Amino acid sequence: MPEPLVHRLRETWAEQIESGFILGDPTTPTETRFISDPASGVTFRLRWLPHRGLRTDTAALERRGILNPDRDELVLFRDPRDPSGRHCFLCPANIRICHPHEALVPLRAGSREWLAGANFAWLADNHFTVLSKEHVDQRFDRSVVAAMLDIHAQTSGEFRVVYNGAYAGATIPWHLHLHITTDPFPVEELQPDRAVDYPMPVRVFADNGSLETQVADHVADWEGRDPEHHRVNMLVGSRGGRPRVFVFLRDTRFTIAGNKGLMGGWEVAGDFAYDRQRGDFEAADLSAVQLAFAAIWPPAAGAAPYR
Q: Which domains does the chain have, with CATH numbers?
């Protein structure tokens, strides 16, 4: 019998910590603040994660052996659409050259082959980036929902699954990828009848036998209204051992929120990570959180609260 996926992921995460591939120490408590939102009943989580500030420090990553200092830049694949000319950080061949110590866990989900690699600039416990084995666009279709639900099921609901639409939190729009973690998200506290009170436009779908179809149709309707700008963030979480899918409506013209910066799937699900300006972390209150959400509220979703 093959080892269950959840065990392989947890063992790989522990091994990558032991090897020094992962920045910081995910086994120690994270400095965290909680902000309660009376309107939605959700308690937002704010965390100070200074290790993430090293993710763009090439010299530091090379010194630690996370990034191969002897990599051959000439053989790395670059998507011609990337205006910065960067190599694709998610192509398996590039990972083998640039991050030889990264362990990739193969899996099959939603009729597609994927590889899960521990995120060295982690946002949560057991945080993996799950990348498509093929270099295909970060474009939503029904197979994305199927894969997310499949991964959730294969891990017995222990792993949450996040999808960021291209230019809605996904920093590499030309390679399909997901994020998974065992950490619950604050939005999972949201009661079904309180979705309208959440400070982002969100629709919550429960497992009723047609979950995949309902979610796919809802996203297709939103993105079809404005294909150039409409995207989604999605989260597959758990409630009573059964999956719930949270679909957050996004607009590529509204992705930055003041001092918080880029707002992706983690943020819209109520989890705010800070890694550069500690003062922003310490000063944030409910008003600051509400205004951050208001800054990325898509106009087509109606009037934004708290402006």
A: 5-298 (3.30.428.70)
CA-based end-to-end distance of the chain: 55
Q: Which amino acid is at 101?
A: H
Half-sphere exposure of 141 (CA within 13 A, CB side): 9
The tokens describing 23, both together, are 């920045």
Q: Are strands 177-181 and 160-164 parallel, antiparallel or unpaired?
A: antiparallel
Q: What is the pLDDT along the chain (307 residues), one digit of tens a residue?
A: 467 999 999 999 999 999 999 999 999 999 999 999 999 999 999 999 999 999 999 999 999 999 999 999 999 999 999 998 999 999 999 999 999 999 999 999 999 999 999 999 999 999 999 999 999 999 999 999 999 999 999 999 999 999 999 999 887 899 999 999 999 999 999 998 899 999 999 999 997 779 999 999 999 999 999 999 999 999 999 887 789 999 999 999 999 998 888 999 999 999 999 998 899 999 999 999 999 999 999 999 998 877 6
CA dihedral of residues 113, 66, 274, 247 (deg, nearest 10): 0
**Tokens representing residue 147 in the block:** 């894969």
Q: Are 142 and 163 in contact (CB under 8 A)?
A: no
In this structure, how many other beta carbons lie within 10 angstroms of the beta carbon of residue 117?
21
The residues pairing with 164 across neighbouring beta strands, listed in sequence order, are 233
